[in-house]
Amino acid sequence: MTTSKKGRTLDGDAGFLLSLAGGRLIRNLNRELESFGLRARHYTVLMATAEHGGLSQRELGELLGIDPSAVVALVDDLQREGYVRRDPHPDDRRTRLVVITDSGRDAFAKASELATKVDDEALGALDEGERAQLVQLLRRIVS
């Protein structure tokens, strides 16, 4: 256990623990998604488009907390695979909406199974109530 001059420890620092847990989850999910040629960020774009329908790249970036230039690259990757398409916005001809395709829905369903497996492994020490409480607390933190 490492103690700083202020008496804080790594195992008591919420930011460090959240970062460590998140990093492990992302690495494990990336390892599982590798067979699809996807990474966790691709998966979250698929999830957002499946959940919200057509979103602009700007809206995707805001929703996912991703830099707009990174969103463009992710959408390009997913479009090359046939998982999403860019449709014209009905009200703004300058904007394109990122929409999940049927192939994208299939890939998302398979990737979701892998993500559930990764979550179950990572959260195996928690019961259902604790998992629900963790998600509720994380929602409060990010909102």
TrEMBL record:
What superkingdom does the record give? Answer: Bacteria
The protein's UniProt keywords, in alphabetical order, are: DNA-binding, Transcription, Transcription regulation
Entry's transmembrane regions: none
The residues covered by the HTH marR-type domain are 1-143
Q: Which Pfam families match?
A: MarR_2
Looking up Gene3D superfamilies in the UniProt record yields:
Winged helix-like DNA-binding domain superfamily/Winged helix DNA-binding domain (1.10.10.10)
Q: Which PROSITE patterns match?
A: HTH_MARR_2
Q: Which PANTHER family match?
A: TRANSCRIPTIONAL REGULATOR SLYA (PTHR33164:SF64), TRANSCRIPTIONAL REGULATOR, MARR FAMILY (PTHR33164)
Q: What is this protein called?
A: MarR family transcriptional regulator
What is this organism's lineage?
Answer: Bacteria, Bacillati, Actinomycetota, Actinomycetes, Pseudonocardiales
